[in-house]
């Protein structure tokens, strides 16, 4: 699967150079996405139990150590796009653990109609 927006994950790695667990988790996520050609939500969950489908258009949160990232997976096109990356605390501040707020954020940032 082609991973778009990879620089966001690379930036997170650079900012956390001393955090080996986080860097390893990011690298594992990148490998998992690039080596898989997921065609549905079940396949994503089998490969990545930490994946949480947050919108039916193919948006998933992935837990990467103490960070979270939103990745859009377009099953038909074989592409995954990094949409948002932040700490769990930033996630709670931004999205308040609420799918309606996540959907509103996705609309405001023109990821969904």
Account of the 3D structure:
- By secondary structure, the protein is of the alpha+beta class.
- Helix content is 45%, strand content 27%.
- It has helices spanning 6-15, 20-35, 41-47, 88-95, 99-108, and strands at residues 2-4, 52-55, 59-64, 67-74, 79-87.
- A 5-stranded mixed beta sheet has the order 1-5-4-3-2, with helices on both faces.
- Helix 1 (6-15) runs antiparallel to helix 2.
- The two termini are 25 Å apart.
State the helix count: 5
The global form is: globular
Rounded to an integer, what's the Rg over CA atoms?
13 Å
Biggest sheet record: 5 strands, mixed
The fraction of residues assigned to DSSP E strands is 25-35%
Given as residue ranges, the uncertain stretches (5+ residues, pLDDT < 50) are none
Head-to-tail CA distance between termini: 25 Å
Give the SSE string: EHHHEEEEHH
Give the strand order of the largest sheet, numbering strands 1, 2, ... along the chain: 1-5-4-3-2
Task: Give the tags.
globular; 5 strands; 5-stranded mixed β-sheet; 113 residues; single chain
In short:
By secondary structure, this protein is of the alpha+beta class. The chain contains five helices and five strands; from the N terminus they run βαααββββαα.
């Amino acid at each position: 699967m082609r991973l778009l927006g990879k620089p966001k994950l690379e930036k997170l790695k650079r900012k956390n150079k001393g955090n080996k667990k986080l860097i390893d988790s990011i690298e594992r996520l990148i490998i998992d996405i690039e080596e898989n050609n997921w065609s549905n939500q079940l396949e994503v969950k089998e490969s990545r139990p930490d994946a949480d489908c947050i919108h039916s258009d193919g948006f998933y949160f992935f837990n990467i150590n103490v960070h979270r990232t939103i990745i859009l997976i377009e099953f038909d096109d074989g592409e995954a796009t990094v949409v948002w990356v932040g700490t769990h605390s930033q996630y709670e501040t931004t999205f308040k653990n609420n799918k309606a707020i996540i959907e509103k954020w996705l609309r405001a940032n023109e990821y969904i109609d």
